[in-house]
Write a structure and sequence with these properties.
The structure is a homodimer of 201-residue chains.
Chain A: H1 17-31, H2 38-45, H3 49-56, H4 59-72, H5 77-80, H6 87-102, H7 112-115, H8 125-151, H9 161-180, H10 185-195
Helix pairs in contact in A: 1-2, 1-4, 6-9, 6-10, 8-9, 9-10
Chain A binds a DNA duplex (30 and 30 nucleotides) through residues 6-14, 37-39, 47-51, 53-55, 58-59.
Chain lengths: 201, 201
DNA sequence: TCAATTAAGTACCGGTCGGTGCAGAACCCT
DNA sequence: AGGGTTCTGCACCGACCGGTACTTAATTGA
């Protein structure tokens, strides 16, 4: 990270690898893994196929890097939300974050991890499974946070952390699909408010 | 409909067109529109590409017919739920129906209208838009039913039918994604119960 | 019996898919 | 200056994509 060390031999790379990855991420976000062709990806990245293969390996590894970047950038809200003081605040921050990320002013609607490869042909099963794990991991982290909340007395003793986490995750996915359907932030925020009406005291 | 009239000339079709469409629907369901190749589709249908084109037109029209069949079959719960006597019963029937349909014992997990083409390349924008409309139409029907419920005093005067409909639709989509993630009917039913905890008296 | 009609099977179409081989260019170190 | 190393651009690869022309088979009506 930081400025690259000038101790590497050979011809220097002529493009900004971070910016290229950012653009690839947005293409995957809008098109999904299979819907994003090498031609469109490299076109958006502003480089040739050869340069892409030299820098990232192949299409699948490019997607993996893009997914990493997505998790550290647009989807970082999922991790930040866990730091909220109460379970309710965690749930609210998580869903409000989902609303923001799935309706970026200048970017693609929806969630990369949902649109990426919900259904796909057999060849990209690896990417499909990667995304299933990604989404389930997010649920597990939420579940652990809610379990802590029960221990801390922040949630009632009889609350089921796993169940609440699955519910919040489902809401997040639902928001992502509604965003892809064209709903805006204001309408999605209403959905969030409605969802939390029954949140355990 | 019913048994086909025996007054058509020419060589009779050698396959059951209904069964072929059913199998195509399942492939689209599992693979999405773009992820389902002609080879896999016709393989599952048990017919040749030529026969498929003669019977259905092309891939897009085959998908449209499959979507029609999906709406009349697996997704019929969305229409049936509207006939429940109270708004709460409508919402519950809708979501329980979603659980059943997205976790069929011998079929693909998830919802065809969600996995079909959430994100896609530019060429299949027509199918993408078709599915957006399909999903939004379902929301509108739910909204109208809830509006009626307000008028009938079944929902509080200050309840917002559109907002409730969007919330229930989001829950349905969330359930579909969670089903694709591997959750089973029991776990999804828990999500439904949790979602309805805050339902307006 | 025989033309008209429709379906099935084969072989093929141009285009695009993800991915590479290769030559030359631009840098490092000695 | 020159070798080693890395990146770039071009041309190209086999495979598969959705879709079709053409021949042959099976039926209807006359």
């Amino acid at each position: 990270m930081g400025d690259s060390r000038r101790a590497v031999m050979g011809r220097p790379r002529e493009f900004d690898i971070d910016q290229a990855l950012e653009r690839a991420m947005r293409v995957f976000w809008a098109r999904g893994y299979e819907g994003a062709s090498l031609a469109e990806l490299t076109g958006a990245m502003g480089i040739s196929k050869t340069s892409m293969y030299a820098a990232f390996g192949n299409k699948e590894q490019l997607f993996r890097k893009a997914l990493q970047r997505y998790g550290a950038g647009p989807a970082a809200y999922a991790t930040r939300a866990l730091e909220e003081p109460t379970a309710r605040a965690v749930a609210l921050a998580f869903l409000r974050g989902a609303v923001c990320t799935t309706t970026p002013p200048g970017g693609p609607s929806g969630c990369l991890t949902v649109q990426g490869a919900l259904a796909s042909s057999d060849e990209s099963r690896a990417v499909h499974d990667l995304l299933v794990d990604w989404r389930n991991d997010a649920g597990v982290r939420l579940e652990e946070r809610f379990r802590r909340a029960v221990n801390e007395g922040d949630l009632p003793r009889n609350a089921d952390p796993r169940r609440l986490a699955r519910f919040i995750m489902a809401m997040g996915f639902g928001i992502a699909v509604q965003a892809a359907n064209g709903l805006g932030p204001a309408e999605l925020d209403e959905i969030v408010d409605t969802a939390l009406l029954g949140w355990p005291a």
